[in-house]
Amino acid sequence: MDTIEQTLAVATEHHRAGRTTEAERLYREVLAASPGHPDALHLLGVVALQGGRPAEAVDLIGQAVAGDPTSPLLQANLGHALHATGQARDAALCFARALTLLTNEGEGWGNVSALTGLIRRYDDETRRAAAAEVDAAYAMGDVMRRHSLLFLLDGDIAHYAALTDAVLEDPMRFTVPSIHYAFWGMAMQLFQGAARRGDSGAFQSGNFTDYYRLMVDETALRFHLRRRMKRATPRGEVKRIALITNQMLGAGHQPTADAFDFARRLQDEFGREVVIINPNAMAITGENGFVPEYTYNITEEYEGEQVIAAFGARVRMMSFPQKRFDEEKVNAIVDYVDGFDPDVIVAFGGSNVVADLFSGARPVICLPTSSGLPLSMARLVLGYGEADTTQGWPADMAERFRPFSFGWTLPPAGPERSRADFGLPDAGPDGGPLFLVVGNRLDQEAGPEFLALADSLLDRLPEARIAVAGGVESLPQRIAALRNADRVHTLGDVDDVRALHRLATAYLNPRRQGGGGSAAFALADGVPVVTVAAGDVAAVAGPAFTVSDDDAYLERAAALASDPAFRDRQSAEARARFAEAGDRRTSVERLLAYALEAQTA
C-alpha cells in the first residue's frame, strides 16, 4: 500500500463486509507504521468489541479518545466497550460526553435521542451523573433543548420547571408553534411517568398550569383571535354541540372510538345536532429542539367536512389535517366553529388548546379522557371517574369541577377462539394461567420495573404465560432479555380482544397513567384487574382491584392463578364494577345536564 490512508480505507471496507480478521491485520499494520493513529486504534477496538473482547476494546478505544477527545463517535464507542465490561458509570459518562459534543454541534434528534436512550438504561444515580456532565459542558443557548434533554436524562422535574419559567418570564422569545411543541413534549413525558425526582403533581398544578394558560392566551393574542371570534349570547338551551377533540385517528385508537361514541349518542339517542371538530392540534411536526422528538399521527383521509360511519351510526366531522399549528389553520377552525354556531363546545380530552381558545366567547365543557388534573380553561371541568377529587388542584379549577364518570361502550364480541388462534401455546389440559397486558403505548409504559415484576411472577408460576396485546416495536427486544422470555408472547394488535379476555386469568397493569379503556373492557368480560392505586386503570377498576406495592401485586396475581374460588369472586366483582361505572348512556345524559349549566352560567 502507498499510504496509511489507503491501507486504512481497504481495512474499513473489509470491516464493513464482515471480514474482521483481514481488517484487524490491516489496522495493526497502520499502527505499526503510525503508532497512536486514532482511527486505527478506534476501529481495532471496535473489532475487539464485536469479537467479544471488551476489555481490549476499552484499552484501544480509550487510547483513541486520548488522542481525539472531541469525537462523539469515539466517545460513544468507548461507552459501549465500558458498558460491555460492566463499568456502568464510566460508560454513562462517555455517552454523556458524546451527547454534549453532538448537541453543541447542533445535531438533530436522531443521534441525540439514541444516546439519551443508552443513558436511561442505568440507575438513577448514574443518570444524574451523566446529566451533570452534559449540563456542565452544554454550550448552546437553546433553553428548550437544554432543559428537556436534562429531564430526559435524569427525570428531575426541576428541569421542566426551569423551561416553563423561561417561557413565562419572556414569552416573546418563543414563537407560538415552539411554545406549543414544547408543551406537548412535556405533557407526553409526564403522562408516561418519566419524572423520577421532584413533585410532579405540584409542577403540573403550578408551573405547567400557568404555562398552559399563557400558551392559550398567547395563541389568541398573536393570531388575533379575540377580534375574529363571535361572542355567543346565553341561550338557555342545548341544541347544537361542537365536540372538539385533539385528533381523530380512526380504528384502533380508543380516544377516537370514544369521541365518535359520545357524538353519535348525543345525536341519535338525544336528538342534538352534533359536529366533531378534528383540528389535529397535537404536535405534528417538530417546531424547536425539544427532546425527545415528539410528533403525533394524522389520518390523511380525514380532510375537510365529511360524514364518518362506524357501528351502524354516522356523524358529521370537520377535519383539519394540515401538519402545522399556525395562524392560518387556527383561523380556519375558528371560522368553521363560528359558522356552526354551537350552543355548547365539548372539549374532548384535557389540554384541548383549540377548545380553550373559545373559552371567553362560548360555553365550553371539558370532558377529560384520563384521570388526574386536566389543564383546561372551560367553564366546567368534569371528572373521569366518580371517585375523582380536586385535591391538589388550583382553586379556580376546583370551583369549576363537576363529578362525572367517563363511561364505556363495549366493542362487539366475536365467536369463541382458542389460544392457538392467537398464536399462544397450550400448557397442560387447561392451558395454565394466562395474564394479559394491553395497551397502545406499551413500548413506553412497560418499563424495566414492570418487566422485572412479570419475570418474578413467571418464576413463581411455572405454568403461567403472559400475553401482550397492542402494537409494539422495542418491547419484544427487552422481553427477550427476561429469564422467562419464552413464556411472554407479544401478539401485536388483536382484532377481537374480548375473545382473548375469555381465555385470560387476569389483566396486569403496568404503572402508567393511561389504559382505562382496555381495563374497562376486561372488567366487563369478568377479567380481574391487578393494578397499583394510581392512573386511569385504578380509577376505572376501583379499590377492589388495587394493591399497595409490588409485593402485594405479585401476591394478588398469584392468588388469581392458584385459587379458583378467589378468582371467581373477583370475576363477579369485575362485572359488577363495569355495570356500576361503565354505563355511557348515563354519562351522556349527565353531560347534557352540565352543558345546560354551562350555557346558563
UniProtKB/TrEMBL annotation:
Chain segments annotated as transmembrane: none
Entries under Gene3D superfamilies matching the protein: Glycogen Phosphorylase B (3.40.50.2000), Tetratricopeptide repeat domain (1.25.40.10)
UniProt entry keywords in alphabetical sequence: Plasmid
Domain Glycosyl transferase family, first and last residues per copy: 431-576
Keyword Phosphoprotein attributed: no
Pfam hit, one: TPR_16
GO molecular function: glycosyltransferase activity
InterPro entries: Glyco_trans_1, TPR-like_helical_dom_sf, TPR_rpt
Name this protein carries in UniProt: Glycosyl transferase family 1 domain-containing protein
Organism, as annotated: Azospirillum argentinense
